[in-house]
Design a protein that fits this description.
359 residues; Ribonucleotide Reductase, subunit A; 16 helices; binds fe (ii) ion
Length: 359
C-alpha cells in the first residue's frame, strides 16, 4: 500500500481543540511576564548553561553566572524563533505544492503549523526582549552576537533550491525530525529545571505540547517522504544527508563545534563582562573538552536521548540494513562521547513525563 499523509487528519483534530486559545497559551503570559520578578530564578537548565563548570564559570560572580544562564536561554530561544521562521517558509512552500497537486487537507495542516509557530515566535521574542532590557541590552545586540543565526537562511535556501529542482519538499520533511528532537530535549530539560521562572515554565510547557505534535508530523512525513522518493540513489542521498545533518545538530558541544557556534558562545560570554580574548580562549577550551572531557550529567543525558531518538527514527526507515548502519555510524561520530557508555552508572537514560496544558 502506498504511504499516505492520512495521519495529518488526526494531528489537525488535536490542533483544532487548542488553536482558538493560542494567544491565551503564549502571548498573554509573555506579555504578563515582569523581568523584575526574576529574582534568583534561572531560565535555562543550570548544567546546560554555556561554559557551566569551566574555570571561567567559577571565576564569574554568582549574579554573572545567573546572567549567563539567562543569556543562554535568550540565545537558545532566539535561535529557536529564527528556526521556526525558516520552517514556516518551507512549510508554506510544501503547502503550496500540496494544495495544487495533492491533498488540500494536508496542506491546511502544514499551514496550521505556521499559525502556531508565528504565535510561538511572538511570545519568545516578547520574553527575550524583557530579559535583555533587565540587563540593559537590546535585541539588536543579542542578534549581533548570534552569528550562527545565518545558518537558518542557508537551510531555507538549500531546501528551496532542492524543492524547486525536485518538485516537492520531501528532503525538507525528511530532515526536520532531528531539529524537533534537538529542540525538544533542551526544552523538556528546561521545564524540569527546579529554579526556572514559573511564567517561562508555563510558556515552555505549552510550547512543548504543540511541538510534540509538530514532531509527530516530522516523523510521519519523513517516513512517507522517503518512501515516495523514486530512485534508490535519491533515497540513499537523503539518508546520508540526514545522518550528517543530525550529527551536526547538537546540545552543549559536539565532536567539532563549528566556528559560527564558537563565535556565538564567545560573544555571549563577553556580554557578561569577560574580555573578548579571554572569552575566545575559554570557548576553545570548553569546546575542545580541555577541562571537562565529560559533560555534566544532564548534558550527557540529553545528548544520549537525542542520539537514541535518532537511532529509533533510522530503525523505522524503509532503507537497507547497511545504509542504516552507516547512518548510525555517521551520527555517532558527532556523538562519540555518548556512543561509548562510560559504564560508571553516573548517567541514567533521560525520561520525560506526559505534559498537560498549563492553565
Ligand atoms: Fe514552536
Ligand atoms: Fe514546531
Amino acid at each position: 500500500m502506498a504511504a499516505t499523509f492520512e495521519f495529518t487528519r488526526r494531528l489537525m483534530a488535536v490542533s483544532d481543540r487548542d488553536v482558538d486559545r493560542l494567544r491565551e497559551h503564549f502571548l498573554d503570559p509573555a506579555e504578563a511576564f515582569d523581568a523584575e520578578t526574576l529574582g534568583e530564578h534561572t531560565l535555562f537548565p543550570l548544567e546546560m548553561t554555556w561554559f557551566y563548570g569551566e574555570p571561567v564559570w567559577h571565576d564569574l560572580a554568582p549574579e554573572k553566572q545567573l546572567m549567563l544562564n539567562r543569556l543562554s536561554f535568550c540565545q537558545s530561544y532566539l535561535s529557536t524563533a529564527v528556526a521556526e521562521v525558516a520552517t514556516n517558509v518551507l512549510n508554506l512552500q510544501a503547502a503550496l505544492g500540496t494544495i495544487i497537486d495533492d491533498d488540500p487537507e494536508v496542506s491546511l495542516y502544514m499551514a496550521r503549523e505556521v499559525v502556531e509557530e508565528t504565535m510561538h515566535i511572538e511570545a519568545f521574542l516578547c520574553i527575550i526582549k524583557k530579559v535583555l532590557a533587565y540587563y540593559e541590552l537590546s535585541l539588536d545586540q543579542l542578534r549581533a552576537t548570534n552569528v550562527s543565526l545565518r545558518m537558518a537562511r542557508q537551510y531555507v535556501a538549500l531546501h528551496t533550491a532542492l524543492g524547486w529542482l525536485r518538485g516537492n519538499q520531501h528532503y525538507y520533511y525528511f530532515t526536520r525530525f532531528s531539529l524537533n528532537v534537538n529542540q525538544k530535549t533542551v526544552e523538556r530539560c528546561t521545564i524540569n529545571e527546579p529554579a526556572i521562572h514559573p511564567t517561562v515554565r508555563t510558556i515552555l510547557k505549552n510550547h512543548a505540547i504543540d511541538e510534540a505534535r509538530h514532531m509527530q508530523m516530522s516523523r510521519g512525513t519523513g517516513l512517507v517522504a522517503l518512501e515516495r522518493m523514486r530512485t534508490p540513489i535519491t533515497r540513499t542521498l537523503a539518508c546520508l544527508g540526514y545522518a550528517h545533518f543530525a550529527a551536526n545538530n547538537y546540545i552543549g558541544r559536539n565532536g567539532r563545534t563549528s566556528k559560527l557556534r564558537r563565535e556565538t558562545r564567545t560573544q555571549t560570554l563577553a556580554l557578561c563582562g569577560v574580555p573578548y580574548a579571554q572569552a575566545a580562549e575559554a570557548c576553545d577550551q570548553w569546546c575542545d573538552r580541555v577541562h571537562q572531557p565529560v559533560d555534566p550529567p544532564l548534558v550527557r543525558a540529553g545528548r544520549d536521548y537525542y542520539r537514541r531518538c535518532n537511532h529509533r527514527y533510522i530503525d523505522d526507515l524503509q532503507s537497507p540494513a547497511w545504509l542504516k548502519r552507516h547512518m548510525k555510524r555517521i551520527l555517532d561520530k558527532g556523538y562519540a562521547d555518548v556512543a561509548a557508555p562510560l559504564g560508571d552508572g553516573s548517567v541514567g537514560p533521560i525520561e520525560f513525563d506526559d505534559l498537560t496544558r498549563a492553565a
